[in-house]
């Protein structure tokens, strides 16, 4: 593993004055921490990501990182000050072999651009420490004493800050009794040459309630909401045996007929998969998993759904909600709808209240009314980065 991102997320967010630490608050439908993590997870040159958390907020962390588990190293324990959290994170990483570079980033900066991450990594090919920041556009003065400064000599510090891993690990161990508000300061103290990368102006640190308002506006500018619609029909065929079931939303429903299909026939998951693919502007389920391909015979349809979900997370997208309507005369689904809802939420790493499953009859009309099959419609709304 050459390049690691260490995301510090162990602060209390006192200045935001919310009921939970700011990194777990949502902008749009997504937590600030998740927005931040997606930027690093989806960067082609970042090999692994570790988050430093306050263990008291472990449940919030699990909720915020649902679906990202496979892409993250287990979290490290935070400390009292940011500096302590960084040191703990670095020490936890020292147990992993072969780390060359480390990018240390505030969880509270969800709008970091891919370009800045790339530029920091590029500069690290030549230097052991690279800072990011914003050059000043306003006139710079001091109050006491009154003085004017040449603003070209100053910048406001952002993260990520990039380092040769062994160098910054050694410095954090050496300077643990000193006070530093960022990690490049340790290199400056040690006289190490520091490179500079201009940060993106939107890479604000969410610090006060006003930053949350501004963050909401940035979200509107950088992300788009898209909707997708999926529809599927499967016809009934005779039951296999007396204990026959059909699968709907990955739940086994007892019924005296089977669903005719190449896969496991989960007509509801097929509709949801197509809704997700449609929202992303992707091809339909049949193109990804052709019914003519023996490979997909009797396949568990959760594989199709998870593929669509993986495409979505790879694009940095998230699901806002899913709304499913199953139309069938029989079996009656009243007692299964809640299970289905929870199952879809579990499969897509969203909350139960982001999913709705409705069941209707067709009032005895048409093929559904004649009890020849089931049809399902699904609608979803997703949020995608504008440049996905
Ligand atoms: N003991 C700490 C303190 C801060 N941080 C992290 O460092 C980043 C920048 O810190 P800051 O904005 O100061 O966050 P908080 O300490 O949470 O904010 P506040 O000072 O308002 O409580 C944040 O992502 C925060 O979670 C951390 O990991 N451990
Ligand atoms: C590291 C940092 O984001 C650089 O600007 C900043 O110093 C962290 O915030 P804090 O309030 O100083 O902890």
Automatic annotation (TrEMBL):
<feature type="binding site">
    <location>
        <begin position="284"/>
        <end position="286"/>
    </location>
    <ligand>
        <name>4-CDP-2-C-methyl-D-erythritol 2-phosphate</name>
    </ligand>
</feature>
<dbReference type="GO" id="GO:0050518">
    <property type="term" value="F:2-C-methyl-D-erythritol 4-phosphate cytidylyltransferase activity"/>
</dbReference>
<comment type="pathway">
    <text>Isoprenoid biosynthesis; isopentenyl diphosphate biosynthesis via DXP pathway; isopentenyl diphosphate from 1-deoxy-D-xylulose 5-phosphate: step 2/6.</text>
</comment>
<feature type="site" description="Positions MEP for the nucleophilic attack">
    <location>
        <position position="151"/>
    </location>
</feature>
<dbReference type="GO" id="GO:0046872">
    <property type="term" value="F:metal ion binding"/>
</dbReference>
<dbReference type="GO" id="GO:0008685">
    <property type="term" value="F:2-C-methyl-D-erythritol 2,4-cyclodiphosphate synthase activity"/>
</dbReference>
<keyword id="KW-0808">Transferase</keyword>
<feature type="site" description="Positions MEP for the nucleophilic attack">
    <location>
        <position position="205"/>
    </location>
</feature>
<keyword id="KW-0479">Metal-binding</keyword>
<feature type="binding site">
    <location>
        <position position="234"/>
    </location>
    <ligand>
        <name>a divalent metal cation</name>
    </ligand>
</feature>
<dbReference type="Pfam" id="PF02542">
    <property type="entry name" value="YgbB"/>
</dbReference>
<dbReference type="GO" id="GO:0016114">
    <property type="term" value="P:terpenoid biosynthetic process"/>
</dbReference>
<feature type="binding site">
    <location>
        <position position="370"/>
    </location>
    <ligand>
        <name>4-CDP-2-C-methyl-D-erythritol 2-phosphate</name>
    </ligand>
</feature>
<feature type="binding site">
    <location>
        <begin position="262"/>
        <end position="263"/>
    </location>
    <ligand>
        <name>4-CDP-2-C-methyl-D-erythritol 2-phosphate</name>
    </ligand>
</feature>
<feature type="region of interest" description="2-C-methyl-D-erythritol 2,4-cyclodiphosphate synthase">
    <location>
        <begin position="226"/>
        <end position="388"/>
    </location>
</feature>
<dbReference type="InterPro" id="IPR003526">
    <property type="entry name" value="MECDP_synthase"/>
</dbReference>
<keyword id="KW-0511">Multifunctional enzyme</keyword>
<protein>
    <recommendedName>
        <fullName>Bifunctional enzyme IspD/IspF</fullName>
        <ecNumber>2.7.7.60</ecNumber>
        <ecNumber>4.6.1.12</ecNumber>
    </recommendedName>
</protein>
<comment type="similarity">
    <text>In the N-terminal section; belongs to the IspD/TarI cytidylyltransferase family. IspD subfamily.</text>
</comment>
<dbReference type="InterPro" id="IPR026596">
    <property type="entry name" value="IspD/F"/>
</dbReference>
<keyword id="KW-0414">Isoprene biosynthesis</keyword>
<feature type="site" description="Transition state stabilizer">
    <location>
        <position position="22"/>
    </location>
</feature>
<feature type="site" description="Transition state stabilizer">
    <location>
        <position position="15"/>
    </location>
</feature>
<feature type="binding site">
    <location>
        <begin position="232"/>
        <end position="234"/>
    </location>
    <ligand>
        <name>4-CDP-2-C-methyl-D-erythritol 2-phosphate</name>
    </ligand>
</feature>
<feature type="site" description="Transition state stabilizer">
    <location>
        <position position="262"/>
    </location>
</feature>
<feature type="binding site">
    <location>
        <position position="367"/>
    </location>
    <ligand>
        <name>4-CDP-2-C-methyl-D-erythritol 2-phosphate</name>
    </ligand>
</feature>
<feature type="site" description="Transition state stabilizer">
    <location>
        <position position="361"/>
    </location>
</feature>
<comment type="function">
    <text>Bifunctional enzyme that catalyzes the formation of 4-diphosphocytidyl-2-C-methyl-D-erythritol from CTP and 2-C-methyl-D-erythritol 4-phosphate (MEP) (IspD), and catalyzes the conversion of 4-diphosphocytidyl-2-C-methyl-D-erythritol 2-phosphate (CDP-ME2P) to 2-C-methyl-D-erythritol 2,4-cyclodiphosphate (ME-CPP) with a corresponding release of cytidine 5-monophosphate (CMP) (IspF).</text>
</comment>
<keyword id="KW-0456">Lyase</keyword>
<feature type="region of interest" description="2-C-methyl-D-erythritol 4-phosphate cytidylyltransferase">
    <location>
        <begin position="1"/>
        <end position="225"/>
    </location>
</feature>
<dbReference type="GO" id="GO:0019288">
    <property type="term" value="P:isopentenyl diphosphate biosynthetic process, methylerythritol 4-phosphate pathway"/>
</dbReference>
<feature type="binding site">
    <location>
        <position position="232"/>
    </location>
    <ligand>
        <name>a divalent metal cation</name>
    </ligand>
</feature>
<dbReference type="InterPro" id="IPR020555">
    <property type="entry name" value="MECDP_synthase_CS"/>
</dbReference>
<dbReference type="InterPro" id="IPR034683">
    <property type="entry name" value="IspD/TarI"/>
</dbReference>
<feature type="binding site">
    <location>
        <position position="270"/>
    </location>
    <ligand>
        <name>a divalent metal cation</name>
    </ligand>
</feature>
<keyword id="KW-0548">Nucleotidyltransferase</keyword>
<dbReference type="Pfam" id="PF01128">
    <property type="entry name" value="IspD"/>
</dbReference>
<comment type="similarity">
    <text>Belongs to the IspF family.</text>
</comment>
<dbReference type="InterPro" id="IPR029044">
    <property type="entry name" value="Nucleotide-diphossugar_trans"/>
</dbReference>
<feature type="domain" description="2-C-methyl-D-erythritol 2,4-cyclodiphosphate synthase">
    <location>
        <begin position="226"/>
        <end position="382"/>
    </location>
</feature>
<dbReference type="InterPro" id="IPR018294">
    <property type="entry name" value="ISPD_synthase_CS"/>
</dbReference>
<comment type="pathway">
    <text>Isoprenoid biosynthesis; isopentenyl diphosphate biosynthesis via DXP pathway; isopentenyl diphosphate from 1-deoxy-D-xylulose 5-phosphate: step 4/6.</text>
</comment>
């Amino acid at each position: 593993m050459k390049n690691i991102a260490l995301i510090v997320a162990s602060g209390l967010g006192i200045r935001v004055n919310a009921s939970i630490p700011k990194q777990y608050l949502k902008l749009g439908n997504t937590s600030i921490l998740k927005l931040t993590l997606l930027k690093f997870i989806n960067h082609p040159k970042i090999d692994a990501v570790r988050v430093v958390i306050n263990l008291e907020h472990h449940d919030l962390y699990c909720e915020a990182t649902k679906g990202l588990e496979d892409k993250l190293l287990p979290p490290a324990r935070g400390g009292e000050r940011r500096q302590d959290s960084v040191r703990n994170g670095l020490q936890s990483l020292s147990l992993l072999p072969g780390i060359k570079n480390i990018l240390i980033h505030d969880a509270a900066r969800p709008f970091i651009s891919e370009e800045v991450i790339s530029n920091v990594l590029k500069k690290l090919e030549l230097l052991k420490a690279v800072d990011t920041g914003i050059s000043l556009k306003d006139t710079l003065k001091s109050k006491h004493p009154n003085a004017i400064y040449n603003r070209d000599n100053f910048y406001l510090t952002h993260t990520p800050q990039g380092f040769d891993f062994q160098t910054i690990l050694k410095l954090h161990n050496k300077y643990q009794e000193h006070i530093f508000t960022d990690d490049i300061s340790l290199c400056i103290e040690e006289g190490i040459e520091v490179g500079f990368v201009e940060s993106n102006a939107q890479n604000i640190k969410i610090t006060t309630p006003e930053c949350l308002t501004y963050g909401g506006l940035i979200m509107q500018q950088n992300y788009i909401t898209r909707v997708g619609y999926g529809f599927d029909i499967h016809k009934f065929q005779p039951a296999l045996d007396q204990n026959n079931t059909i699968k709907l939303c990955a739940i086994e429903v007892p019924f005296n007929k089977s669903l005719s299909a190449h896969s496991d026939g989960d007509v509801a998951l097929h509709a949801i998969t197509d809704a997700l693919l449609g929202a992303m502007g992707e091809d339909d389920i049949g193109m990804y998993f052709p019914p003519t391909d023996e490979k997909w015979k009797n396949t568990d349809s959760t594989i199709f759904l998870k593929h669509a979900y993986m495409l979505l997370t790879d694009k940095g997208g998230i699901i806002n909600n899913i709304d499913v309507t199953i139309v069938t005369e029989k079996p009656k689904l009243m007692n299964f709808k809640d299970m289905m809802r929870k199952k879809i939420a579990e499969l897509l790493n969203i909350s139960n209240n982001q999913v709705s499953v409705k069941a209707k009859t067709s009032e005895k009309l048409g093929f559904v009314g004649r009890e020849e099959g089931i049809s399902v419609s699904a609608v979803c709304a997703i949020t995608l980065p504008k440049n996905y």
